[in-house]
């Protein structure tokens, strides 16, 4: 009989849960870019936020532009993967629409700095990164367009696309004007967004 597998030690589990240095840098950079804008933040500022020297950052990223590129492509990939995953798991069009709204609301509420950077800094990306981000964003929108048209009777493709962008604007504005606590805001945004989408029937 093979020996029983040993359980991971508590310390090992804690180590696995810790963000990597690279992840720490991206998180700090996102907060700073959201507060000051991409051009208002220097390498030394980001280094200070994670407790290392500015030049030491170059062991992890070749430039501030590369940092932004990884940050924004990562956001777009997470959203696209999340949208596609919900589309494949949903049992009905109505369920999918609700899941997509909840997913976007949770992402916006839990990642306000990333939402802000995504909205404000896309033009600062290198051309290759910008094309990649734009492509993934378009694919994410198409997941929503299909869900809206399947769940809401009589909606044209153009109207569904306009509705998706309008709901993104509603949800993604949350980092700028949160007045309720997180759960209250999530509930409110879910109700408003779903109500707006259902009202698109022509």
TrEMBL record:
Q: Where does the record place the HTH tetR-type domain?
A: 19-79
Biological process, per Gene Ontology:
negative regulation of DNA-templated transcription
Top-level taxon of origin: Bacteria
Classification lineage: Bacteria, Bacillati, Actinomycetota, Actinomycetes, Pseudonocardiales
Which keywords are on file for this protein? DNA-binding, Transcription, Transcription regulation
User: Transcription: is it a keyword of this entry?
Assistant: yes
Q: Which PROSITE patterns does the entry mention?
A: HTH_TETR_2 (PS50977)
- Record region (Disordered): 1-20
What's a Gene Ontology MF term here? transcription cis-regulatory region binding
Q: Which residues bind DNA?
A: 42-61
Enumerate the SUPFAM superfamilies for this protein: Homeodomain-like (SSF46689), Tetracyclin repressor-like, C-terminal domain (SSF48498)
| Name the record gives this protein | TetR family transcriptional regulator
